[in-house]
Amino acid sequence: MPYSVWKNGQKIGETRFELCPGPRKRAGVFHPTAFGLSVLPGITAMGPALLDFGAMCRERGVDVDDNRPETAERAFDDFADTPQAARIRAAASCIADLEVRDGNGRTLGWDSIMISDMNEIAKLAERRRRGTPDQLSMLPGDPIRFMISTTLADVPDPRRRVVAVAGESLGIC
Question: pTM of the full predicted structure?
Fold first, then answer.
């Protein structure tokens, strides 16, 4: 079944959520509309912003492997005035307006959502590998450009949207 993603009343793309790794978790290839391509840079900025924020926290002695929510909240509070935190807030502002609809047009509530630009993720990985050849360019055929992952809300309430800034939001699901 196709699902659509909307921002401020305009469709930004579709997915089939081909992967369902858990009862509320969905992931898949994201196919943007022309309008979607214009707003995706702000939305896809969350992944790189989270990675950079995590690297900064690690450099400043925060245990980034501690998955307790209070640890992430404390780190975000401690470093709220950094450029890395500002980037997270800017991306969260773009993401907060997203709406997911099922094939019947029914709005689905979500707890977390991430749309990733795989080209940007590959560039980040290449920088971290310090010049190792881009592995995506070595794959045959056209690579997948955008991926989407979400954790749907327990209660289907479209007004319940929380943009996660740590933990599972970094993964595919």
Answer: 0.78
